[in-house]
Amino acid sequence: MFAIIGGSGLSKLSSLDEERREVVRTPYGEPSGPLLFGQVGGKQVVFLARHGYGHSIPPHAVNYRANIWALKQAGAEGIVSVASVGGIRADLGPGMLAVPSQVLDYTWGRKATYFDGSDSKVVHIDFTEPYDAALRTRILRAAQAAGQPVLDGGVYATTQGPRLESAAEINRLERDGADMVGMTGMPEAALARELDIPYAAIAVVANHAAGRASSAGGIAMSDIEATLQEAMVRVRLVLEQLCAL
Ligand code: HPA
């Protein structure tokens, strides 16, 4: 069974025929909300809204450990994350979809490991390839089957948020090799790896990153919302294909 973690703009999965919800408690506290079980395209999936169903949990306050733990406990054999990003690379304009291949982590103060020493076990996971190759391929195939263009690859930089970045910070991220920037990619990907769950992401470009728009001025939240609303229609089509494949 697949798990889908929905980010900004995807706190509901309209194509999910919901069968039941489960409130899960974990040793790490409460997940962002109940797990929704149901079918997409005739296949069983479990869905969780990363920011809560009322979109009330900011990126730095998401209990990533509880979320991933709860999905593991529910029997998730793979996790597809949907995450909105700002596009740094010129060809990643608003509305574009990408399946990133690498991450950078600029977050701080988040509980980022299950192996924090409290049970005296020291574990170093391999994270050379942060995303699961087979799951990435499945998403790319699903996008193709759904007729939706997606960028194959790209470096996802995770910032702390909740504020957006300064133009200089985006320049730094680009020098570091980032193609897109979001606030939730880490520690989510690493925690999934720690629990040995294949994990991959669909990044949805909500806006040009700070200082990258051709027009002068800042980033309007209303534009982001409109872009995400339209783009999530396409993401849902990809997810339906993914479940059907
Ligand atoms: N920066 C960080 N996270 C984001 C952005 C951005 O520009 N857009 C959507 N999520």
TrEMBL record:
Binding-site residues, phosphate: 8, 50-51, 184
Annotated catalysed reactions: S-methyl-5'-thioinosine + phosphate = 5-(methylsulfanyl)-alpha-D-ribose 1-phosphate + hypoxanthine
Pathway the protein contributes to: Purine metabolism; purine nucleoside salvage
CDD domains associated with the record: MTAP_SsMTAPII_like_MTIP
Pfam families, alphabetized: PNP_UDP_1 (PF01048)
Keyword hit for Glycosyltransferase: yes
The protein's enzyme class: transferase
Keywords associated with the record: Glycosyltransferase, Purine salvage, Transferase
Binding site for substrate: 183, 207-209
Positions marked as site (Important for substrate specificity): 165, 221
Family (UniProt): Belongs to the PNP/MTAP phosphorylase family. MTAP subfamily.
NCBIfam families in the cross-refs: PRK09136.1 (NF006599)
Other remarks on this protein: Although this enzyme belongs to the family of MTA phosphorylases based on sequence homology, it has been shown that conserved amino acid substitutions in the substrate binding pocket convert the substrate specificity of this enzyme from 6-aminopurines to 6-oxopurines.
Function: Catalyzes the reversible phosphorylation of S-methyl-5'-thioinosine (MTI) to hypoxanthine and 5-methylthioribose-1-phosphate. Involved in the breakdown of S-methyl-5'-thioadenosine (MTA), a major by-product of polyamine biosynthesis. Catabolism of (MTA) occurs via deamination to MTI and phosphorolysis to hypoxanthine.
Protein's name in the database: Probable S-methyl-5'-thioinosine phosphorylase
Annotated organism of origin: Viridibacterium curvum
